[in-house]
Amino acid sequence: MRDLWLDLSATTQDAILLVALLLPGAILAALLLRGFAPGPLVRALLWRFRWANAVFALLIAISVGSGLALIAQERGLRQGTAQAADKFDMVVSAPGSELTMMLAAVFLQATDAPLLDGETYQEIATHPRVKIAAPLAFGDSYERAPVVGTIADFVTYLSDGEIEGRMWTSTFEAVAGANAPAGIGDSFVPAHGHGDSAEEGAHGDAFTVVGRLPPTGSPWDNAILIPVEAVWAVHGLADGHAPDAESRLGPPFDARYFPGTPAVVVRAESLGATYALRSEFTRDAETMAFFPGAVLSDLYRIMGDVRQAMSALTLVTQALVAISVLLGLFILSRLFRRQLALLRALGAPPRFIMAVIWSYAAALLAAGTALGIGLGYLTAAVLSRVVTARTDILVQASLGWTEMHLAAGFLSAMLVLSLVPAWSVLRAPVLSGLRS
Amino acid sequence: MDNGLSLSVRDLTVAGDRGRSILSLDRLVLEPGVALGVQGPSGAGKSTLIFALAGLAASATGSVRWGETDLLSLSARRTAAFRARNIGLIFQDFLLFDELGAEDNASVQSLFAPRGRRPGLREQAGAMLDRLKVPKASRTVASYSGGERQRVSVARALAHEPAIVLADEPTASLHRAAADALTDDLLADVRARGRTLIVASHDERLLSRMDRRLHLADGTVREAA
Questions:
Q1: Chain A residue with the nearest C-alpha to that of B156
Q2: Which of A225, A274, B91, B213 shows a CA-CA span of 20 to 30 A to A123?
């Protein structure tokens, strides 16, 4: 049986689980409604107390929607960060915090990091199993967008070779990220530093944007990339090349004129080579080599506990909502106590009375849950936009099977619990109901 | 035509909320097809008697025998089934579903009747509304006059052709002309079909047209003149 289950596709498994979660409600409906036609009465009750019902359904929707959006958002954030780090196979930097260096190199978060010297860079760049060794140079910005120095090969790799316009061919040309505040043909002068403390006009040289990257879903979309030589030059440093090769852009660099880099993004010739290179460049007190994906993975593991806490909180919230819904149903069923007493006086069997109350509750719960799914979808979409705008990490949170299972589980549990108010109506004396 | 059921009540007592006896009836015997009026001051227990005869008073003890069936000895489910089949109830304030039309209200029992009986019940409800001259408009009964609403209520009580009709102050919410017209129509139907009718009322014009009258006062019951 287990093998049969494992042989099924993930989609089939999810679909079966969804049906299984909805099954208790469906079975209840079949058992309660068999042979009866309570539809007109349920519609009448829904219409009679339409405003109370609408508020009730809306409260259910908000509760379900916020729970679903929260879970979807957490998943979207994980996927977004993983996608942002996708192009960064390995980073080599001076020993320190892998997390800090990953945030600096992949997510372009400003940091003061010690530099790797020219010999070290040379060793990495000339390693036979290295395809690209891109030095990164941070520290400048333009209109709050980071200006990053690197090499053309890395820019081409980052864009999968699909640059709009062209790659830089001279020191003071730039390629802008998809969302950067400068377009092709624009000129800009980088400020020294970032944010409010950035010094405008500290560097006098103007750059011209000659190309634009396609969207990558990472903070690099907001960055402006320039030749690493230009970063060094505007800071009054050697430009990485010997005086007789000063007009050269990109590798090879001359170790004697290499001012240093906080991080080198490495692309190896194969996956096996990446592991070998990490081992080779992990040296005490010299270099630290790490996989951003692995650092993120560790982060997710820590966040996993947070996620469990979030899931537990969501469940607690749903349980509280369930209690509120039950109390609401008790109150609502008292509102039409007289109509129900009339039906009992006319000889309606107890199962029919239960069917009316339960169908009424089911209609509100189903409407609230369906509305909640829509609301959750919208909330997740809005939150994704906000997070993307604030972090430049492309977060595409959307409702998936997990959220559908949660909604179906909530609905099914509530449909079962709705029997309690339905049953309690039968315990009330008919006479007092008729005279109420 | 004699479709009614006989009634035999013995030692019927109904207790109120705190166990206080609110109705006590040692003996009442009614032939099938008889129309009985129950009169008495407010609070004498007229409505309680009507509900007890319908098996709706949970605290009732004794015996209420309709034909061969002792209603008080049945389970709640069987009592409900007996009511659905044999009793038509009419209330002072109509007790209609305001959001439904006249036909839906009159045929409300079809919603829990066996599937095979549903079309017949709806048909009978429609015919009953025609007989009582109630407009079967598509609008809801909320817009009907008091007289029309009570006629819908009567149609609901008679649509399933019950052997017994129990009415609690059926004319109390109507003006005189509407009350008289309703009395005429109700009695015409009951007598034509031989149903047993018991009416609790203050309406002397209605009571005067009953075959027998019962007077309830101070916990005692006597046959009225």
A1: A346
A2: A225
